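In the previous chapter we treated chains in isolation. Here, by contrast, the input contains two separate entities that must be folded as one system, with a combined length of 516 residues.
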Amino acid sequence: MTTNIKIHLADDHQVLIDGLSNLLKTVPNFEVAGSSLDGTTVYDDVISNQADVLILDISMPKKDGIETLKEFKEKKATCKVIILSSYDDLKIIKEVMKLGAKGYLTKNCAGENIIEAVEAVHDGQEYFSDAVRKKIFNTFKDNPKLNQNAVIENPILSPREIEIIILIALEYSGKEISEKLFISSHTVETHRKNIMKKLNIKSTIGLVKYALKNNLINS
Amino acid sequence: MFGFHFLICLFFSFTEKGIFLSQQILSIKKTTTGFANQINDLNQLTNKKIVSLSIILIVIIFLLFYFLYQNNKLKQKIKRKDTKQKILLNIINSSIDSQEIERKKIASFLHDNINSLLSSAGLHLNTFTVQNEIKSDEITKAKTILSQAHDLLRDISHDLVPSLLVRFGLFYALEDLCEKNSNSAIFFEFSSSISTDKRYHEKFEMKVYFIVSELFNNIIKHSKAKKANLLMTEKNNQLILRIDDDGIGFKTQKPKDLEGFGLNRIRARVKKYKGTISITSKENIGTQIKIQIPLPH
C-alpha cells in the first residue's frame, strides 16, 4: 500500500481552501493535513503536521508567499512547495522557482492541474500548469530556427517532452535548458532519458533526426 | 579883498564839489536802482527755477509712485499666478494621489477577493465532475467562462497596479516595463547601477513607476523613436532617472505645447517629491529627460 501524500494548504481565503480540500479529498491517497490563513504560521504548521506537499498562495496578509518560501529555504524544510497564485508573470515564476518552489499553478486552472501537480512534485519533478509552461517556452520564440507552428500534441510524448526535444535539437545545453525552463538539470536529464526510451532511440543525433522529421525545428 | 576871493573860490569849489557830489550821488542812485533791478531779475529767475524744479520733482515722484504701483501690481500678479499654480499643482497631485489609492484598492479587491471566489467556484465544479464522473459540456463551458473571467480580472488588476511592483519592487517592475514595451518597432533598454532587489517606500515606488510609464507612453505615441534608454542611478541621496530616445524630438522653447503630453502631471508628481525635471530635445535627434528625486527616508 502506498502511503498517503499529506498536503498542507496556505491561502488567505477560506473559500479557496474549502474548494481545494474538497477536490483533493476526491483522490484516494491524498490527505489534507491542515491549512493556514496567513504566512506567519505556515512553517510551524507544516513542521507539526509533517506535510509532504505545501500548496502556497503568494499574496497573503502579514507575511506573503515569497517570504514564507524564503523561510522554508533558510530552514531547509523538506516539504515540496507548489505555488498557487493568480499571478502569471514570468519574473515572479522565475523568482519563486529560484527560492525553491517545485511547482507553479495559476488559479484559473487550478482545478485541472492540482492533482497532477501534487503527484508530480511528490515524485520529485517540477510541475507547471499548461498556461505557465507555454509562457515559459515562449521565451524561446525569437529563435529563428524554431518552427513556430510545430505541433506540440503527440500521442506518445508530453508537451514538455516535445519542448525538451526542440531545445536539444536547437543545441541548447542541459544547463541552459534547465535555466530557461526553470527546472533542475536532473529533471532535464530525466526527461531526456524518458524521451529516448519512448522513441526507442539511443543518442542525441536520433533526437535531432526526430525533431527534423516532425518539423519541430526549421532545417 | 583876498579873503573875499578866497571865499568865492571856496564857494565855487564847494559848489563844484557839490555838483560833483550830487552827480556822484545821482550816479550811485542810478547804480543802486540798477542793482535793484538786477536783484529783481535774479529773484524772478530763482523763482522760475524753483517752480520748474518742483514740477520736475513732482513728475519724478509721480513716476516713481507709478512705477512702484506697477511693480506692486506685477508682484501681486506673479504672486497670484504662483498661488494659482500651486493650487493647480495641489489639485493635480491630490487627484493623482486619490487615483492611486483607488487603483490600489480596486486592484487588490479584484485580485484578492473576486479572484479567489472565481477559483473556488471552478474548484467546486471540478470536484463535482470528479465525484460524479460526469462529462458535461455545460460544466466544461462554465469552467471556460470562469477561466476567462479570471484572466480578464488578472489583466485589469495588473493594469491598475503591476503585480511585479508590489511583489518585487521598482527595479524589477521597470525592467519588466522595458521588456514589455519593446517590440519590432522600438527597443527599450534598461540599465541601473542600483541592485534590482532594492526596495523603497511603496508609495514612492508607485509614483516613480507611473512617471516612467507615462514617459514611455509619450515616447511610443509621439517620438517615432527606434531606441529608448532608461538609466537609473542613485547619487547624494537622490534617485536619478534618465530617459533618452532617438526620436523626432521637439522644440523645447515652447513648453506650453507639451502640456498635452501629460507633462504637467509628471511635473506635478516630481515637484511633490521636491525633485527636479529637465527636458532637452533637439528636432530629429531625440529627447533627453532627466529627473532627480530625493529619496524618501
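Chain A has ten helices and six strands. Chain A touches chain B through 28 residues (CB under 8 Å). Compare these points with the single-chain example from earlier in the chapter.
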